[in-house]
Amino acid sequence: CSAQGQTVIYNLLWQLWTEISVQWLGANWGTMLGAACIIIRSGDSESRMIAAKRLWTILATKSLYLVWKLRCERVIQNDRKDLTFATLNQRLMLDQKATATYLGKRALKPGMVETTWLPVLEHNRDLLPNWVGNGKVLVGIKRGR
Do the beta carbons of residue 49 and residue 40 sit within 8 Å? Predict the structure, then answer.
């Protein structure tokens, strides 16, 4: 990925890693995703450097997390409207499923779900009378034009 934040994060990772006098492992798919599996040995000896391994695991996984978080912020900023409608549609489907009779007293009343969502549904005049409990009916939130 050539996104701006990734380079900055990986450079900071490299700077921190050079402080411990252990050979740079590189920031690539293998070393980053397999951070917890890497074995770091001291020089020519067979002894493992447990603290260095632990530090690498923490630095690599947190760096990956930050790269992912920056990407999410960038995507949300660009597609905020689509994400909003997708989230609302998911909630609408959850409310529809929550009216199931097997839930007993915990089930939502279909009338409440209908009065809550009907004003903001697309094609609300074309819906069947029992659209709330009918999982085969496709409904969605109106999108602003």
Answer: yes
The token duo for 122 is 């697309």
Predicted pLDDT at 136: 60
Residue 10 and residue 27 in contact, taking contact as beta carbons nearer than 8 Å: yes
What CA dihedral angle connects 60, 63, 64 and 65, to 10 degrees? 120
In angstroms, the CA 134 to CA 100 distance is 10
Write down the pLDDT at residue 80: 57
Q: Which residues of 92-103 are buried (b: 16+ CB within 10 A; e: fewer)?
A: beebbebbeeee
pLDDT averaged per 10 residues, the chain (length 145): 71 78 76 79 73 79 84 70 72 86 88 81 78 68 53
pLDDT of residue 2: 60
